[in-house]
């Protein structure tokens, strides 16, 4: 069940409309940074393997097989080690993910302001960012023709009142998007780690109990 829940959360994060709209973008021959998906793929793998290993542990407990329970315990130790390594990697790179995406956006924004629209697709990339995240421009937009590029690149609001409200910068929205997603990944990883620790303890207790049983 825990493996299924982790797999479901990971698949939801993988196919979330906001992240997929942004991370599938291509600026010329340059692809948007996909570092974020590394953590998602690790979660998907852990969830799928946990489901299989959980079935192995259940079957081993029903059959009272020390061999299967020992294999179950070994698989859990390997999964736990992989998750700790992935957690350390994610913690080290958590700020880099948003930074890479912001750099990609800034490059697209600079190209969108250039006079050669046929030479790049920067304007389309920037508009996708603005529409997906409901934002407008970087933190420090270029002052020249500010009203012109805002009218051209930023999403138009339906109500008159919304047009007078200054939309948030895309840098801020990118930070919020990935910090929220990484927060969910962190919670899922902690839940998995706690469940794994209990599984390892209980499998060893059961294995030792079978070994000391009078039946054997």
UniProtKB/TrEMBL annotation:
Q: Name one Pfam family in it.
A: Tetraspanin
Single Gene Ontology BP term? regulation of cell population proliferation
The entry lists its GO molecular-function terms as: lipid binding
Keywords assigned by UniProt? Answer: Adaptive immunity, Cell membrane, Disulfide bond, Immunity, Lipid-binding, Membrane, Transmembrane, Transmembrane helix
- Topology class, membrane: Multi-pass membrane protein
Q: Localized where?
A: Basolateral cell membrane; Membrane
Q: Which InterPro entries match?
A: Tetraspanin/Peripherin, Tetraspanin_animals, Tetraspanin_CS, Tetraspanin_EC2_sf
The organism sits in which domain of life?
A: Eukaryota
Q: What's one GO-annotated cellular component?
A: basolateral plasma membrane
Q: What cystine linkages occur within this chain? A: 135-170, 136-154
Q: Any stretches that span the bilayer, and where are they?
A: 36-62, 68-92, 182-206
Record-stated family: Belongs to the tetraspanin (TM4SF) family.
Put simply, this protein is called Tetraspanin
* Source organism of the structure: Zapornia atra (Henderson crake)
């Amino acid at each position: 069940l825990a493996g299924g829940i982790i797999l479901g959360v990971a698949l939801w994060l993988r196919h979330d409309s906001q992240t997929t709209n942004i991370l599938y973008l291509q600026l010329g021959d340059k692809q948007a940074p996909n570092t974020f998906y590394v953590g998602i793929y690790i979660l998907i793998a852990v969830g799928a393997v946990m489901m299989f290993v959980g079935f192995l542990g259940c079957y081993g407990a029903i059959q009272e097989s020390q061999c299967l329970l020992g294999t179950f315990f070994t698989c859990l130790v390997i999964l736990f080690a992989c998750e700790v390594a992935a957690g350390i990697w994610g913690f080290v790179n958590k700020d880099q993910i948003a930074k890479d995406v912001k750099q990609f956006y800034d490059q697209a924004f600079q190209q969108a302001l250039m006079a050669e629209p046929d030479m790049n697709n920067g304007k389309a990339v920037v508009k996708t960012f603005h529409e997906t995240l409901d934002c407008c421009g970087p933190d420090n937009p270029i002052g020249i023709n500010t009203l012109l590029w805002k009218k051209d690149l930023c999403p138009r609001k339906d109500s008159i009142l919304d047009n007078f409200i200054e939309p948030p910068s895309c840098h801020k929205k990118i930070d919020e998007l990935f910090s929220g997603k990484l927060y969910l990944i962190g919670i899922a990883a902690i839940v998995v780690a706690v469940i794994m620790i209990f599984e390892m303890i209980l499998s060893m207790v059961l294995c030792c109990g079978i070994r000391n049983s009078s039946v054997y």
